[in-house]
Amino acid sequence: MSMVFCRGCGKEIHETAATCPHCGAQQTVSAPSANVAGDEVQAFDWYVAVLRNYAGFSGRARRKEYWFFFLFNILISMGLGLVDGITGSSNISSGMGFLGGLYALGTFIPAIAVTMRRLHDTNRSGWWMLIALVPVIGIIVLLVFLASEGQKTENRYGAPVK
User: Fold this and answer.
1) What does the radius of gyration of the chain's CA atoms come to, in whole angstroms?
2) Which of 60, 94, 101, 127 has a Cα at 20 to 30 A from 8?
3) pLDDT tens digit sequence for 82-102
4) CA distances in angstroms from 93 to 21, 74, 88, listed in the order given
5) Which residues are 26's β-sheet partners?
6) How far is the C-alpha of 133 from the C-alpha of 142, rounded, in Å?
7) 26-35 pLDDT per residue, tens
8) Nearest by Cα to 114 from 75, 64, 41, 65
9) Considering Cα of 137, then 144, then 61, then 53, what sign does the dihedral take?
C-alpha cells in the first residue's frame, strides 16, 4: 500500500485517493509515481506526468518535473523537425514543418500549465510568465525563477511537492 501526500493539507493519504479524506482537496497528477522523492522515477515519466496533467494550472511542480518536460519537449521537437525536413513537409518561411506544428500545438497548453505550476512552487503567480515579453532581460529573469528552488513549506498554492 503506497502513500502520497495530499496537495491541499499535506497529510498522508493512499495513492489512489481522488480526494483527500482530511480536507477534501482534489488530488491531481504531479509526480509520475507514489514515490514523493522521485528517486526511482525514470526521466521520461516526468514528461508523461505533465501530459497527463494536461490543463492542471493549480498546484505546484518541482524543478525535476519542469526541466525534464522541457528537455524531452526540445528533443522531440528536434526529432520531428528532422522528420519534417526529410519528408519535405517543412516550411522554410515559418521554420516549422507539419509534424512539428502539430506537436507544438498539442503541447502548448501543458507547457503553459507546468510553467505556471513551477512558478507556484517558488510562490509566484503564473502571471510572471509574461515577463518573458520584455526583450532579453525578461527571459533571463523568468529562467532564474524557473531554476530557483521551490519553497520547502506550504505556500498559497499548496503543500510542497518534494
Assistant:
1) 17
2) 127
3) 999 999 888 888 888 999 999
4) 54, 20, 13
5) 19
6) 10
7) 776 555 554 4
8) 65
9) positive
> 88 and 115 in contact (C-beta within 8 Å)?
no
Task: Say if CB 90 and CB 96 are below 8 A apart.
Answer: yes
- How many residues in total does the chain contain? 162
Q: What is the pLDDT along the chain (162 residues), one digit of tens a residue?
A: 566 766 666 667 777 777 778 777 777 655 555 444 445 678 888 899 999 988 889 999 999 999 999 999 999 999 999 999 999 888 888 888 999 999 999 999 999 999 999 999 999 999 999 999 999 999 999 999 999 999 999 999 888 887
Which residues, other chains included, contact 91 with Cβ-Cβ below 8 Å and sequence gap of 6+?
Answer: 97
Q: Are strands 90-91 and 3-5 parallel, antiparallel or unpaired?
A: unpaired
CA 92, CA 116: separation in Å to the nearest integer? 32
* Of the candidates 42, 36, 32, 34, the residue with the CA atom closest to the CA atom of residue 114: 32
Backbone angles phi and psi of 50, in degrees to 5: -65, -40
